[in-house]
Amino acid sequence: MSNKLIGEMGLHTKISNIFAARNIITAKDALSMTEFELMELLDVGMKEIRLAIALISEATSPPCQSVENEHLLGHLPTHLKGLDETLCGGIPFGVLTELVGPPGIGKSQFCMKLALSASFPVAYGGLDGRVIYIDVESKFSSRRVIEMGLKSFPEVFHLKGMAQEMAGRILVLRPTSLANFTESIQELKDSILQNQVKLLVIDSMTALLSGENKQGAQRQPQLGWHISFLKSLAEFSRIPIVVTNQVRSQNRDETSQYSFQARLKDGFQEHTKTYDSHLVAALGINWAHAVTIRLVLEAKSGQRIIKVAKSPMSPPLAFPFHITSAGISLLSDNGTELKGPGINTIHARGHSDMINFHADCS
Amino acid sequence: MEAWRLPLSSSIRGKLISAGYTSLSLISSVSSSDLARDVNITEEEAFEILRMANQSSGSSSCNGSRSLINGAKNAWDMLHEEESLPRITTSCSDLDSILGGGISCRDVTEIGGVPGIGKTQIGIQLSVNVQIPRECGGLGGKAIYIDTEGSFMVERALQIAEACVEDMEEYTGYMHKHFQANQVQMKPKDILDNIFYFRVCSYTEQIALVNHLDKFISENKDVKVVIVDSITFHFRQDFDDLVQRTRVLSEMALKFMKLAKKFSLAVVLLNQVTTKYTEGSFQLALALGDSWSHSCTNRVILYWNGDERYAYIDKSPSLPSASASYTVTSRGLRNSSSSSKRVKMM
């Protein structure tokens, strides 16, 4: 929309030519300047500028949509009853869902299970479509996926040829660099609808960006483009996009307070609390604003917990889970509600506690 | 006043000044045909210049009963206007009380906070609450929801709309109001239909839409609230030239203020948060920079205080700085249950 040509908007020829002469070709060029600046640049009176801008704006403006029930988003069921209920059906279509947690907690396991679910026929709660799995850290294991399928949906998987067909729908990409990844997702945009792609998984976003040897400040603009692109991709094609994120330790001088909070001394947390050595999600606050649903996976006192940290339509619930040969399963479908910012904190115990597949196997 | 301050194109201005018309008094003293001949411009252009010069110099028109300056109102008349302004409730009475009754119409209010604190929730709640009919104490208006991030979730809007309808039924039942035979009760679907939803995908579209709103609202006069969720998103990602960004944002803020005053509606801009290095440490601050902080009339910051969500009036011409707690429930925004943490005045 922003690249709409001014020449095709039905402006008076004279003013249209003036715009073109000053190299203002698209709507974006015209609207990135204030009216006063345009007046100076084009040497035209204010009234004419206003008229021209009004016409350009009307042509570039997005249409008004009505918020209707039919517009209700579809969902990809996670087959975790408590989580699906909280999220009104599962991972929603058209938005970015983030899984964040310390290493080894089960993010990739969760993603693999989701990929499997999406490839399933609709009768078994799947989306009957293809899955694009962008595997940056080589965590995808086809053997594991088949094992999960056999254990969780034995009646489907034991049918002849089903395993092959389901696995055949999951397309794994291993980009070697950020540029490579960027190219691939740009290609995807056109082919998603044609090829019945129903889910995009990016595991993990952090690894892609940290692979580039750039300082933190420079990383922001890159991330900005990817955020906008992924969000528009999700909305345009109405598919769920699941992204995993890593954690980093909180910097010493990082704080989560505003300047006025120091003045309001009504029982706020002691300042030292912010120096707690707990972890925070990587990729920054800009990314945190951009994702619509954030699921935090953490381990506390040996128990793994999945928390719905950010979701416009769910209360902040936490569910204990464990990982079995069938994938992730919830230990209780009744989540505990966590009030307060605690829902966002991430805890991790030592590695030895966590990677213990065989002990959990039932 | 100098002639070069007039909003004219540079070539006309150049001609005026080289012909010797450097001040407005000189311009006003001639007729338009003389001006046209002297400066070598057309009659229409000369007429336009004279009109602008007369406006700016504040010379009164012939009937001296008009006020001293065109367009000014005296403070007493404004007081009556301000007091009779309707306000949109946030469904949380503590929050309403620090806001002086609710979000005021004819004003631009900025609400910012960290992700997950409830900005979109407030946006959706306001777009539902503006539709509460006058019989129940509301405005009976419609809402424009400008979504730049795709955070508007229909399921959530439906939940809040249903809760609102239930509350209204309870209220009217309690007040024993008798509806007319043909009066239709509001249904959740009607509430959703009265929200004009725009999905904006770039800052160009955002600017275009703001410019276009004047025409749109003239055609839909019952719109009483415009919510932008969020004002920051596109400007943060794609706009590289920060100085230019500040100028464009200021112009946008002025346009919103004009809309608010012209149509007597409330404009609510939701903002994101960034970290800023001030006073020797990193602190949270609302995004878009210091210049933007000046642009909005009212500013409310949402933050975590212990385990509770709080709202703080950071900037307002008439309200004292105060904070109040609120919660987000499945029915929408409500008072927080802990009665001890009530409104705290500074």
Report on this model:
The complex is a heterodimer of chains A (362) and B (346). With 362 residues, chain A is an alpha/beta fold. Chain A is built from 15 helices and 15 strands. Chain A has helices at residues 13-21, 27-31, 35-42, 46-60, 81-86, 107-119, 142-152, 154-157, 162-168, 178-194, 205-210, 216-237, 284-290, 351-354, 357-360, and strands spanning 64-66, 75-76, 91-92, 96-100, 130-135, 170-173, 197-203, 241-245, 247-249, 279-281, 293-300, 303-310, 317-324, 327-330, 336-337. In chain A, a hairpin with a 2-residue loop joins β13 (317-324) and β14. In chain A, α3 crosses α4 (46-60). Chain A is globular. Mean pLDDT of chain A is 81; it is low at 266-276 and 350-362. With 346 residues, chain B is of the alpha/beta class. Chain B contains 13 helices and 14 strands. Chain B has helices at 10-18, 24-28, 32-39, 43-57, 75-83, 93-98, 119-129, 154-174, 188-193, 203-219, 233-238, 242-263, 289-295; strands at 87-88, 103-104, 108-113, 142-147, 195-199, 223-229, 266-271, 273-278, 281-286, 298-305, 308-315, 322-329, 332-335, 344-345. In chain B, strands 3, 4, 5, 6, 7, 10, 11, 12, 13 and 14 form a 10-stranded mixed sheet that branches. Chain B has a two-stranded antiparallel sheet with strand order 1-2. A two-stranded antiparallel sheet of chain B has the order 8-9. In chain B, α3 crosses α4. At the A-B interface, α2, α3, α4, β1 and α12 of A face α1, α8, α9, β5 and α10 of B.
**Strand-residue fraction of chain B?**
15-25%
Structure annotation, total helices of chain A = 15
Number of helices of chain B: 13
Principal-axes shape call of chain B: elongated
